[in-house]
Amino acid sequence: MDKRNFQILAILQRKARIPNVEVARLVDMAPSAVLERIRKMESQGIIDGYEVRLNPDRFNCRQISFMYVYFSKNSDPGIIGDALEAIEEIQEIHFIAGEDCYLIKLRTADTNELNTLLQTRIIRIEGIRSTRTYPVLSTRKETAQIPIRP
């Protein structure tokens, strides 16, 4: 990875659909060389894929919430994680150090839908002892971009 690769990655993170010719112009390289570098970074797993970012308001998914999901004693976090992964409203699942729990991020239409999801699906998963939910009041920054450092 050299400086130009980092520049290319920074550009693609901001605007994945940018034409290759435009990337080449921005990093002062030939388009064929840029394309070769991008393909190499894809094959090496540096570029993991491309996603479309949808407007949650257009799909009635305005309510973001974070939830701690605490495990029962002797429960299997892997089985609980698999069950949580099957719930489409859950966007992220993180195993937290220091506690036997996951921290999850969810998107629902509103707190009523969140409550229904919690009562009908999440707390019914075998091995879940309890949950603690934090509905988000407002979001100041939300990004999927990661810091790129040479």
Derived from helix and strand composition plus strand pairing, the structural class reads alpha+beta
- Residue share in helices? 25-40%
**What's the end-to-end separation, in Å?**
8 Å
The global form is elongated
Specify the biggest β-sheet. Answer: 4 strands, antiparallel
Number of separate helices: 5
- Tell me the total number of β-strands: 4
CA radius of gyration: 20 Å
Task: Output the helix-strand order.
Answer: HHHEHEEHE
Q: Could you say what the CATH topology of the largest domain is called?
A: Alpha-Beta Plaits
CATH homolog superfamily of the largest domain: Lrp/AsnC effector binding domain/regulation of amino acid metabolism (RAM) domain
Strand order of the largest sheet: 2-3-1-4
In terms of quaternary structure, what is this? single chain
Q: What fraction of the residues are assigned to beta strands by DSSP?
A: 15-25%
CATH class of the largest domain: Alpha Beta
Q: Which residue ranges are poorly predicted, with pLDDT under 50 across at least 5 consecutive positions?
A: none
**Total domain units:** 2
Give average pLDDT, whole number.
Answer: 95
What CATH architecture of the largest domain do you see?
A: 2-Layer Sandwich
Task: Give structural notes.
- It is a single chain.
- The protein is α+β, with helices and mostly antiparallel strands and 150 residues long.
- The chain folds into 2 domains: 3-43, Arc Repressor Mutant, subunit A; 56-135, Lrp/AsnC effector binding domain/regulation of amino acid metabolism (RAM) domain (Alpha-Beta Plaits, 2-Layer Sandwich).
- The chain is built from 5 helices and 4 strands.
- The chain has helices at residues 3-14, 20-27, 31-43, 77-85, 111-122; strands spanning 63-71, 90-95, 101-108, 128-135.
- It has a 4-stranded antiparallel beta sheet with strand order 2-3-1-4.
- A hairpin with a 5-residue loop joins strand 2 and strand 3 (101-108).
- Helix 2 (20-27) packs across helix 3 (31-43).
- The longest helix has 13 residues, at 31-43.
- The chain is elongated, with a radius of gyration of 20 Å.
- The termini are close together.
- The relative contact order is 0.17.
- The mean pLDDT is 95.
